[in-house]
Amino acid sequence: MPHVDLIAARLRLHAPQRVLDAWQELRLREDALMWDLSENYPAIGHGGDGMRSDDPGVLRLTGAIDDFVSVVRKSIGTDLGK
């Protein structure tokens, strides 16, 4: 079983709903970015042009990661003002 599935299963069993929701959003954004990479950037990894850091898909995934980290910190009481 892939580690992301193990993480999701553990979150379903033990985490507050908001943490699970943030995880699922992160995974959706990651899947969307991976699809975009495979469809629109087939030369990545083969000397072709890379995706820009300001690409909307990259920004959405980065935002989802930041949201997940923030929600986890808040849920365990370690929100260090971020």
In short:
By secondary structure, the protein is an all-alpha fold.
Report on this model:
It is a single chain. With 82 residues, the chain is mostly helical. It has one domain. Helix content is 70%, strand content 0%. Helix 2 runs antiparallel to helix 3 (56-76). The longest helix is centred in the middle third of the chain and has 24 residues, at 17-40. The radius of gyration is 15 Å and the shape is elongated.
Write the layout of secondary structure elements.
Layout: H1 3-14, H2 17-40, H3 56-76
Structural class category: mainly alpha
- Give the fraction of residues assigned to helices: 55-70%
**Total discrete domains:** 1
Rounded to the nearest angstrom, the distance between the terminal CA atoms is: 33 Å
The low-pLDDT segments are: none
Strand fraction equals under 5%
Strand-and-helix sequence, N→C?
HHH
| Biggest sheet details | none
Tally the helices: 3
Which term fits the overall shape? elongated
The count of β-strands is: 0
What is the alpha-carbon Rg in Å? 15 Å
Averaged pLDDT? 88
